[in-house]
Amino acid sequence: PNTMIEKIGDYFRIICAIINRYRPVFVKDTSKDQQIGEKILKLLRETNKIKTYVENIKNNTEKKLKWMPMNATNSMPNFPRMNFDELQELTLGVYQLKQARAYITEHMTSEGAYSVKITDQRQDLLRAQIQSRYKNNTKYDIYIQYDPKNVSGWYCTCPNGSRVVGCCAHIASIMYYLSFARDNLKALQPRSSLYYTTITDAQDYSELSDVDSDSDVSDDDSNTLYILA
Question: 73, 80, 148, 151: which has the highest count of C-beta atoms within 10 A?
Fold first, then answer.
C-alpha cells in the first residue's frame, strides 16, 4: 500500500543486512575481475569489423557471397569447442547464454537439424537466421567469424547485434550450440522438464472405469466411459 512507501528504504536495508548475514557471496570468484575489466576497456575502443564487411557487401563495395545451407548438427568440425566458462568469458556474462537455450530449441527442427549457412568464398565465416522471440514477422541475420581455435568476430542485424563488448543472445545461441550444446544435448534440457518424472502418465491407466453392477445407476450412466485427460 502507499502508506508503506516512506518505509521502503528501511525495509531495503533490513533485507540487504539479512542477505549479507545469511546468504553466500553472490560472486565467489573475483580472481579474473581485473582481466575482464581490461578486456572490456580494450573492446570499447574497437569497431565491429564484421558489421562493416556485411554493410560493404550490401553497398557493393565488397564481393557478394554465395551462401549454402547446412545442417550443423553433425558437420562443421572446425568450429572451436568451448566449455561453459570459456563461453562466458566470450559473452562477458551469463544472461545471453541463458537466453540462448530457448533460441536454440526454437531454431532446431523436429528431426534435430540445426541450420546454418556457409560459403566457399570465406572459410572463416558462417551465417544463420534466428527468429525473433518478440516479433513473429522478424528474423535476424547473424554472422560469425571463427577459426579452429577461437571466435574472432560477430554481427547480428538485431538492435543490439553490433556491439563488440559481449554479444546479443542471437549470436550467443549460435556459438553456444556449435561450440558446446551439440555435444552436450542435456545442457538444452530445461529444469522444468525434470518435473515430468514426478507425474504419473495417464496412459498407464485403463480408459474404462469400474462400474458396480449392484449399485443403483441408470443404464445411460453404466454405459459411460471415463478417461484421464
Answer: 151
